[in-house]
Specification:
five-stranded parallel sheet, 16 helices, 9 strands, single chain, Rossmann fold, alpha/beta, four-stranded antiparallel sheet
């Protein structure tokens, strides 16, 4: 999916009607002020002011409301695109930097896109059109000399504003980058606070994030200084055309006071949008940064997904690894994992045990070779179907904020309370359930903070086992358990009617593997 096609399908089509709406609002609003001026000069009837005013209010309300709805739909479309892309992005892409970018996109940039139809288009379509229409009206209502002078001074004002915006945009360029770096540093601090404190003490633990925040503060100070200058230039730009036109009337000895009132009314309305554009560069920088971030996510390395469901025979979940190469870890590696067997994967640290598991579940593709379920390549099996084949417990158990039941039901949303409690007790969580009258409905704290390391591992095991998948993959899934608890759980796992793949640094004898894959 190209970036242009995404924008065309999900942005342009939604924004064009709203853009035309703001054009209509600009025309009606300009005509309203022109009608007031003509009524002062007794050229148009006063009733026309009321009619145009009502039409302007109604149209502005309708377009603004449509802009908010369109912005919400636009953000929803982009969220859907991002979620689709995320389901296909290779796991190796999720570095801390990229996660920071993704966090900023989802929490700031995409919500910022919602303001485009209702506010940004108003600034960049409605705001320029009103001065153009009113300037043309001055040629007709007053005379061509006033109109020409006002147009010249308005162009000069816009040029001053343009240069101020250039300086503001240039100064502000660093702000978005420092915000990403600050988010990155804050993520590191939150995720690794214990390590940072133990390594450098409480004060040194925050050194990295303080440096990032300091750089962000400097960037913000420079931006604010440039913004103050842009605001001052905006004030000059707003008043200059009006004063120039009034001074011209005075110097040319125009006696009719009505002309002074008309020129002031139209001139101030024509220059008012210039003030609205005073900090436009900040908004443009934010939107451009959001666009770049969105483009980077859209162009992240993804796994191609087939469109059609493949027939994988339920009686044949044998896994075949055929001559895979994944530099620098694997080179022409092959093995067969028969259905229903207990397989132990061992090897020294860094030899690719976790990488092999990821390739088996197609979190990434090998550079060469293939991985098959039965006789079907994983590359030809769509993600929803492929996901149903595997239950996975990673080295670091993933626990979500919520209850014991909500965590276990992640793998089987329709599981009954009885089923959830049964699997929880089978994974030796009985003491945890009996700790509170809420049982499976007791909260686990933020990301499992209320649980011990062993309890988190057992909860992760329960989450995987309740899925009843034909292939269960455990990556150091019992490393935090005491020997007695580990032995009890392994006994439960050995009774499962599935293919069981285990990575462990503990004694392999307790697993009683039928096949061992050694990674030298």
């Amino acid at each position: 999916m190209s970036l242009y096609s995404v924008l065309k399908d999900h942005a342009f089509k939604k924004l064009i009607p709203v853009s035309l709406g703001w054009c209509a609002v600009a025309l009606l609003e300009s005509l309203s002020y022109i009608a007031i001026a003509c009524a002062i000069l007794k050229l148009w009837p006063s009733e026309l002011i009321i009619i145009l005013g009502i039409l302007t209010v109604i149209s502005t309300s309708m377009v603004t409301n449509a802009g908010f709805h369109t912005g919400a739909k636009l953000a929803g479309s982009i969220y859907n695109i991002v979620s689709t892309i995320l389901s296909r992005i290779k796991v190796t892409w999720f570095t801390t930097h990229n996660r920071s970018q993704l966090l900023k996109l989802n929490t700031q940039h995409i919500p910022g896109f919602m303001s485009i139809p209702a506010h940004q288009l108003q600034n960049f379509i409605h705001a320029p059109l009103v001065p153009i229409i009113i300037t043309l009206a001055l040629f007709w209502i007053v005379n061509y000399q006033v109109g020409l002078l006002f147009a010249s001074l308005l162009c000069l004002s816009l040029f001053l504003q343009y240069r101020a915006q250039q300086a503001l945009a240039k100064t502000d360029q660093q702000r978005n980058q420092t915000e990403v770096e600050a988010t990155h540093a804050a993520l590191e601090l939150v995720e690794h606070l214990e390590l940072l404190r133990s390594a450098g003490g409480c004060k040194n633990a925050t050194t990295r994030v303080e440096q990032a925040w300091s750089a962000q503060s400097i960037a913000l100070f420079k931006t604010n200084t440039a913004a103050a200058l842009a605001t001052f230039c905006s004030a000059i730009a707003v008043i200059l055309p009006c004063l120039g036109a009034l001074l011209f009337l005075y110097l040319t000895d125009v006696k009719q006071h009505e002309f002074y009132l008309v020129v002031m009314l139209l001139a101030l309305r024509a220059t008012f949008p210039i003030e609205a554009l005073a900090l436009a560069a900040l908004s443009l920088n934010d939107q451009y940064a959001a666009y770049k971030n969105y483009r980077e996510i859209l162009n992240a390395p993804t796994l191609p997904e087939p469109d059609s469901i493949q027939q994988v025979l339920a009686e044949n979940y044998t896994v075949s690894i055929e001559n895979i190469s994944y530099p620098p870890i694997f080179n022409d590696f092959s093995c067969i994992i028969n259905q229903g067997t207990r397989v132990l994967i061992n090897g020294a640290s860094g030899k690719g045990k976790t990488t092999l598991l990821h390739l088996l579940m197609r979190f990434d593709d090998p550079k060469h070779g293939d991985v098959k379920i039965g006789k079907t390549s994983l590359k030809t099996i769509p993600l929803p179907q492929r996901a149903s084949f595997f239950a996975y417990v990673p080295q670091v158990p993933v626990i979500f904020s919520g209850t014991i039941a909500s965590n276990i039901r992640i793998s089987k949303p329709d599981a009954s309370d009885q089923e959830v409690e049964q699997i929880a007790r089978a994974m030796m969580l009985g003491n945890l359930l009996d700790r509170s009258p809420l049982g499976i409905n007791q909260t686990v704290g933020e990301y499992g903070a209320a649980l011990s390391g062993g309890e988190r591992q057992r909860l992760a095991l329960a989450q995987a086992i309740i899925k009843n998948a034909p292939i269960v993959i455990l990556d150091e899934a019992t490393s935090a358990l005491d020997p007695q608890t580990e032995a009890s759980i392994i006994k439960q796992l050995q009774e499962l009617k599935c293919t069981l793949l285990v990575v462990t640094h503990n004694s392999s004898d307790i697993w009683k593997p039928e096949h061992i894959i050694h990674l030298p």
